[in-house]
Amino acid sequence: MVLGSDLQGLRINVGCGATPTAGWLNYDNSLTVRLASWPGIMRALCGVGAVTRDQLHFARVARANGIRWANAARRIPLPGESVGVVYSSHMFEHLDSNHEVPRFLEEVRRVLVPGGILRLIVPDLFRRVRGYLEESHDADEFLRSLYIVDSTPRGVIGVTRQLIVGFRNHRWMYDAASLIRLLERHGFSSVSDLSPGETMIPDPGPLNLREREDESIYVEARRA
Q: Which of 3, 104, 152, 202, by CA, is between 20 and 30 Å from 44?
């Protein structure tokens, strides 16, 4: 279901990983995106275990789809009021809630046109807690499912891999209510928790409106 009226401006996917959106500008902050132009180096790093085959695949996807590097928690490399839609799936929970989250939301507001839409998809903490309380009763499995703890890299290969791949565990978790409150505090309006497949984005085209629906919440908001 699609709600809303026409929007002008670019459409961008921030933190797209290996699933860029066709016809949109796609950004990711992984060093793999910067190394994608040197496939020989990536293959060599994979050969010694410094990158995984998944990262090698990501490099191929980045090269084939023109994914651009950006650290959106510092700056989205676009002019102010030039974007109609900002989409970000399973990236937001990787941001430091004290510093990176406010800066990212400030950047989103800067680049969005008035009335522009932010669509965030994050893991649903409520669903995971409910699964623990009603089904598994396994504290170890519950904590592993949050992906908030990472092992310390060991040796040169381990340290190199972390430098290339980056810190990929979660730094904060949200349910729908907490994410809505956060966006409202940062000046967004019309903040809504939507069902999979539902959006305020007019003519979303190839955008996956059901990405990871078995574990996610979908929240959209407008720049006032």
A: 152
Gap between the Cα atoms of 29 and 71, Å rounded: 5
Report whether pLDDT(108) > 80. yes
CA 171, chain centre distance (Å): 13
- Which pLDDT score, from 0 to 100, does residue 45 have? 83
The pTM of the full predicted model, rounded to 2 decimals, is 0.89
In whole angstroms, give the CA distance from residue 3 to residue 223: 16
Q: Which residues make beta-bridge pairs with 219?
A: 120, 193
Q: 10-123+156-202 has which CATH code?
A: 3.40.50
Phi, psi of 221 (to 5 degrees): -150, 160
- In the prediction, which pLDDT does 4 show? 37
Q: Is the model's pLDDT at 91 over the cut of 50?
A: yes
Structural contact between residues 28 and 17, judged by C-beta atoms closer than 8 angstroms: yes
Please give the Cα distance from 119 to 116 (Å, whole number): 10
pLDDT at 140: 93
Spell out the SS3 assignment of the chain.
Answer: CECCCCCCCEEEEECCCCCCCCCCEEEECCHHHHHCCCHHHHHHHHHCCCCCHHHHHHHHHHHHHCCEECCCCCCCCCCCCCEEEEEEECCHHHCCCCCHHHHHHHHHHHHEEEEEEEEEEEEEHHHHHHHHHHHHCCHHHHHHHHCCCCCCCCHHHHHHHHHHHCCCCCCCCECHHHHHHHHHHCCEEEEEEECCCCECCCCCCCCCCCCCCCCEEEEEEEEC
Structure token pair of residue 83: 């974007």
